[in-house]
Design goal:
The chain is α/β, with parallel strands linked by helices and about 325 residues long. Helices cover about 40% and strands about 15% of the residues. The strands form 3 sheets. An 8-stranded mixed sheet has the order 5-4-3-6-7-8-12-10, sandwiched between helices. A two-stranded antiparallel sheet has the order 1-2. A two-stranded parallel sheet has the order 9-11. Bound molecules: NADP nicotinamide-adenine-dinucleotide phosphate (NAP). NADP nicotinamide-adenine-dinucleotide phosphate binds next to α5 and β9.
Length: about 325
């Protein structure tokens, strides 16, 4: 007997139930599972003439498998079985230490033509992901790679964003405004995020990794007294908009991660930086764009960072 023989409405096609049951059979073979369950089946009940009859060992084991299967399926509630067939075949999972990690995904990077976005494109390709790079000047990206698709589009235009989400598993948003734009009204971050959250809901894409900045949202209170005045004078408008952006994301049903780098520098990836998720640790500092990209790409399959905000400094 195997997990897949339990009659759990398996379709003939190799869909998520079968994938899951085969994997479960590998991790906890049915024989081992029933050995674990048997002592808890109880000899009381009908056998002793009182109470409800005992559940058969197979029933108990099947219910256990059914329960864990339902938990697994709920992770993908927005995806249909057909989507999941594609999902499973387009991705590889690493389960070596019993933690599920996505090794290869189809990633949409919004704001991909320069800065953190371009570094993220580079890192994601290096990590083996399929990358769709969206920016108004995406065609100017000088990188070429068989797994890179450059898409010219505007993050404020719903049709552009919805089209770019086709077949995507994970979105990384790395939008930025030019220095001179900091001194006028800034709405890019909140407006683009409104468009993105609605488009992701419409397309059933759940995972969003978004770069905002140290000083956005509740990290504002961690700006030192010395930096507060110049920070607000220069970045005040942009960060007020980034705070709205963070609120929209937090209020959504997406599986989000907020990435708040300190002051950005150029240069290569060092891998030596701190990702601070506790408000008591939050402080300003410098960090290379390439290291921010490194962190973003590492969060693609890291479910532990879902619904968390990180301040990044070196
Ligand atoms: N500078 C700092 O010290 C610092 C510190 C912390 C956080 N941050 C934040 O980190 C983020 C990234 O910074 P960065 O310097 O890497 O950015 P950047 O070099 O200015 O790049 C911004 C990207 O956004 C794209 N973009 C802008 N408007 C767009 C639109 N409407 N549609 C599509 N793409 C659009 C740009 O591409 P196109 O122009 O081709 O569309 C570009 O690829 C920014 O939000 C920034 O505020 C900066």
């Amino acid at each position: 007997m195997k997990q897949a023989d339990l009659g759990l409405d398996l379709s003939a096609k190799r869909r998520r139930k079968r994938e899951y049951l085969d994997e479960m059979e590998r991790v906890v073979p049915w024989a081992r599972l029933t050995t674990l369950v048997e002592p808890h089946c109880g000899a009381k009940g009908k056998a002793s003439g009182v109470g409800r009859p005992p559940f058969a060992l197979t029933t108990r084991g099947t219910e256990l498998v059914r329960g864990s299967l339902a938990g697994w399926q709920s992770c993908f509630s927005s995806k249909t079985d057909a989507d999941l067939t594609d999902f499973a075949s387009s991705q590889r999972w690493d389960t070596t230490d019993s933690k599920w990690r996505l090794i290869m995904a189809h990633v949409l990077i919004i704001g991909a033509s320069k800065g953190i976005g371009l570094e993220t494109v580079r890192n994601a390709l290096e990590a083996g992901h399929q990358v769709r790079a969206l920016a108004r000047s995406a065609t100017s990206i000088s990188l070429t790679h068989p797994q890179l698709e450059k898409v010219r589009g505007n993050a404020l235009v719903r049709e552009d964003v919805e089209a770019a989400l086709q077949g995507v598993d994970v979105v990384i948003q790395t939008l930025g405004v030019g220095f001179t734009e900091l001194f006028g009204p800034v709405h890019l971050f909140s407006d683009a995020t409104r468009v993105l959250v609605a488009a992701m809901a419409a397309r059933g894409v759940k995972r969003l990794i978004c770069v905002t900045g140290f000083g956005a949202g509740d990290s504002r209170d961690s700006i030192s007294a010395l930096q507060r005045l110049p920070f607000h004078a220069v970045f005040g408008r942009a960060y007020a908009d980034k705070s709205i952006q963070e609120r929209l994301i937090k209020e959504s049903t997406l599986d989000w991660t907020l990435v708040r780098p300190g002051v950005l520098t150029g240069g290569g990836r060092t891998g030596r930086y701190k990702a601070l998720d506790q408000p008591s640790q939050w402080r300003n500092g410098i960090i290379a764009r390439a290291d921010v990209a490194d962190f973003c790409v590492k969060q693609i399959g890291n479910l532990a960072s879902v619904r968390k905000a990180y301040v990044l400094v070196s």
